[in-house]
Amino acid sequence: SDLFQHSNVVEFSPSGDLVAIAKGNTVNVLETHSLQVLHNYTLEDVVSIVEWSPTGRHLLFAMLKRGLVVVKSLSDEEWKCKIDEGMAGLTGAKWVPDGLQIITFTDYQLRATIWNLKDKSSCFIKSPKYS
Q1: Which of 1, 27, 108, 120 could cross-link with 41 by S-S, CB 3.0 to 4.6 Å?
Q2: Residue in 89, 98, 29, 36 with CA at minimum distance from that of residue 64
Q3: Mean pLDDT of 45-54
Q4: C-alpha distances in angstroms, 77 versus 33, 50, 72, 107, 126?
């Protein structure tokens, strides 16, 4: 279908009953059995990474060119989280297994930051080595 054609990223939910499809700056969340669109998100820039939380209740969208991460809740349309790495740049973003925290990685392995979505705190790891 046209929805899958030229998509940047396709990610299935942990349960497999939903799929998130990113095309440019738009992300659609569909039911896998009917392909009915349940959610449609328009973001600030091209989405490079889409990742489901381990619980399947939240979606992480990373816009690497902009150094920006946006998290949306599937159950609460008003709730969102925005993480801006700014001048440090962004090379990656992942959920921590507890589903309450996100780790982001800056350009040139300068820093990794763990962001707690529950209490809005963060901690930094200087010069992490990863590949």
Answers
A1: 27
A2: 89
A3: 97
A4: 23, 18, 8, 31, 35
Looking at residue 7, what is its pLDDT?
73
Name the phi and psi angles at 64, rounded to 5: -60, -40
DSSP-based helix, strand, coil % in the chain, nearest 5: 5, 50, 45
- C-alpha dihedral over 40, 71, 73, 21, to 10 degrees? 40
One-letter amino acid for residue 37 of the chain: V
- E strand residue ranges, the chain: 9-12, 18-23, 26-31, 37-42, 49-52, 58-63, 68-73, 80-84, 92-95, 101-105, 111-116, 122-126
